[in-house]
Specification:
With 322 residues, the protein is an all-alpha fold. Helices cover 73% and strands 0% of the residues. Helix 1 packs antiparallel against helix 12. 27% of the residues are buried.
Length: 322
């Protein structure tokens, strides 16, 4: 337990160090880009220039970075929007849009995990038969195709031709967040996100379970009188889940990451589409806040996955030298 505690502390410290390095690199790179044009119809140019002066845009990069870190660590102030959501607090806008991203990704994971496990187990039990070949071929196809291609297919087939789902999701003003109407409107995005997760989990489950089914202890279990179904459910699945469960846990932890392109295609007002817009218009404050947000989610997911190995299987000692 003491070794595990040291390992966790070490990983957390490395996580913050990595976040600091990524944040620094992104800040320097985005600041090296030219400022967007300010002479746009309906906008006060002098007001915008004065605001940029107050935000320290004319100061050296290191001074600007120090001011950013100072505001974030002392006041949790990520600034206000400049190119979009002008004068609105960046963090407030992010929190407002976060539920859309969480909901669409949560639904896709809840759909993908049981289907991926079922298909993977079925393919492993039918290994080297025609059923296994069909499942494996479909897995390769679905993994190879990007999610945005599925988005266009789903939009054309289910939304345009069949008319089962709307092209864009419902707004919170028109329907409740966890209502059936909201679920139906999000279904095209859920399907587009879920195909890749189902294929990946199917391949992973099939590979791990196939290896366990050919282990010597499975032969021993069969010689003791257990049927194939009993040996598979009591022994094979339990051992295979030691590797599969951390992957599932990582999917749940990483749901806040969202899908940048899918949210943009289906006009989901979530964090992902906000990030894409921030990059396009070069809104520095939104870009930095969302970069740190996505970086934190990715690093935290990897830490939770590593720690879960030791929790699921006590025989694994994370951080031990022996």
């Amino acid at each position: 337990m003491r070794t595990m505690g040291k390992y966790i502390v070490k990983r957390i410290l490395l996580m913050f160090l990595t976040m600091f390095i990524i944040m620094t690199i992104c800040f320097i790179l985005i600041k090296m880009l030219p400022l967007p044009a300010v002479r746009e119809m309906g906008r006060d140019v002098n007001l915008i220039l004065a605001k940029r002066e107050a935000m320290g845009y004319n100061k050296p990069l290191l001074v600007q970075y120090f001011l950013l870190l100072k505001n974030v660590f002392l006041h949790w102030d990520w600034g206000v929007g400049e190119q979009m959501y002008e004068a609105l607090n960046v963090w407030d806008v992010l929190v407002q849009k976060l539920p859309y991203t969480v909901l669409v990704n949560l639904y896709s994971i809840l759909l993908a995990i049981p289907l991926g496990l079922v298909f993977g187990i079925y393919a492993a039990l039918k290994k080297n038969r025609w059923q296994d070949h069909v499942v494996s071929t479909l897995v390769v196809v679905f993994i190879s195709v990007p999610s945005y291609v599925y988005a266009f297919i789903v939009q054309y087939l289910f939304c345009y031709k069949l008319g089962w789902f709307p092209l864009t999701i419902e707004s919170l003003e028109s329907t409740a967040f966890f209502s059936g109407r909201m679920l139906v409107s999000m279904m095209p995005a859920i399907l587009s996100l879920g195909f890749g997760v189902i294929a990946g989990l199917t391949r992973y489950t099939r590979a791990e379970l196939s290896e366990v089914l050919t282990s010597e202890f499975m032969l021993l279990a069969r010689t003791k009188g257990l049927t194939k179904a009993q040996a598979t459910s009591r022994h094979a699945l339990r051992n295979a889940m030691v590797v599969i469960l951390p992957m599932i846990i990582g999917e749940f932890i990483g749901i806040l990451g969202g899908s940048l392109i899918i949210e943009k295609i289906f006009a989901i007002p979530g964090v992902g589409s906000l990030y894409v817009s921030a990059v396009n218009v070069r809104d520095y404050n939104f870009f930095m806040a969302l970069t740190v947000f996505y970086t934190f989610i990715g690093l935290a997911s990897s830490i939770v996955i590593d720690i879960s190995y030791g929790i699921i299987d006590p025989r694994i000692r994370m951080g031990s030298k022996k």
